[in-house]
Amino acid sequence: MTKLTQYGWSAYWNMEWSKEDRGIHQPGRITADFGQMYKVYTEEGEIWGEMSGKMKHELQHGGPVPAVGDWVELQMLEGEERGVILGVLDRKTNISRQKAGAKSAQEQLIAANVDILFLVTSLNDDYNPRRMERYLIMAWNSGVNPVILLSKADLCDDADIKAAEMEMIAPGVPVHVVSALENRGKEAVTGYLKEGVTVALTGSSGCGKSTIVNWLAETSTQRTQGIREDDSRGRHTTTHRQLFLLPQGGLMVDTPGMRELQLYDDNGGGFEQAFADIESIGKACRFADCRHEREAGCAVRAAVEAGEIDAKRLQNYRKTQRELEFQMKKEARGQRKLNRMDRSAKEPVRRKSSYWNQRLTDE
């Protein structure tokens, strides 16, 4: 039987588990999320899990929603291959984005306790360095180590040139050119897949994530689809998040493709890391609060004119900066609304209490 350590259980998680008296309960790791039900791997094998009533109630007050990769506390149901999820152990890392379509800033958790994030983009018409800058922000904000995979190299004649371009926008981040069809780059990628290490893949729809999972797993673990020839985009092949144990010993999380990545926050300093060159040059601007637009003495615009910084990169820097600032304001408005709702909910209770206190006094 597969041991829990192969799914990432370590001395660290053993210490976290031991912080509380959990009696006969046991740990498990969520391997798939189907909405109300979860697949959870335990020492006894894979079972179905469902949140307890208490957890569901706590969700209304900001409690954690279990996610793929989470370690959870389980109460096994006697005689059944399922259990009740009682709680989530504190996460080491969590990959999040802004929930699409939400009027206020809302987090959508993609995966938890990931060590390495493969940022996948295909070498066809979907190739986009500006989009990759956004994925890098998400990775660094999540606390994981990013690795860029340029997939479908068999469709590209200048893959090495594009790899060099990616290395320019992501200094220090490993960049690998891969092709499942030609079996290219597999040795470099499998080098990350050590026992107990969790790797997640993310990227736009149709970029080849599921093909990479099948290629590395050496089996048809994930269903794949072709892409449209007119715009090199694909449908969502992966419909839910799932964690796989690979033959190399590592763990991999495949996630549904993203039509658009909306950043959730910048608490991890991901923006500064993704645009470290602009941030560094910006320190030489005449004004400390320079926006690098029309200000006199702007060192960043001077660097663009000198060809040291790509003008499109600066444009994306400004766009992303405005987006994060707007999102912070939206989050603040949402918090103020919640505070007002909380006060409104408590106010009738205080009035009722005062009314009966007065009645008792009168009597």
Automatic annotation (TrEMBL):
Protein name: Small ribosomal subunit biogenesis GTPase RsgA
Keyword Zinc included in the entry's annotation: yes
Protein location: Cytoplasm
Its job: One of several proteins that assist in the late maturation steps of the functional core of the 30S ribosomal subunit. Helps release RbfA from mature subunits. May play a role in the assembly of ribosomal proteins into the subunit. Circularly permuted GTPase that catalyzes slow GTP hydrolysis, GTPase activity is stimulated by the 30S ribosomal subunit.
Keyword Cytoplasm attributed: yes
Disordered as annotated region, ranges: 329-363
NCBIfam families: ribosome small subunit-dependent GTPase A
EngC GTPase domain ranges (all copies): 112-259
GO biological process: ribosomal small subunit biogenesis
Polar residues bias locations: 354-363
InterPro entries: G_CP_dom, NA-bd_OB-fold, P-loop_NTPase, Ribosome_biogen_GTPase_RsgA, RsgA_GTPase_dom
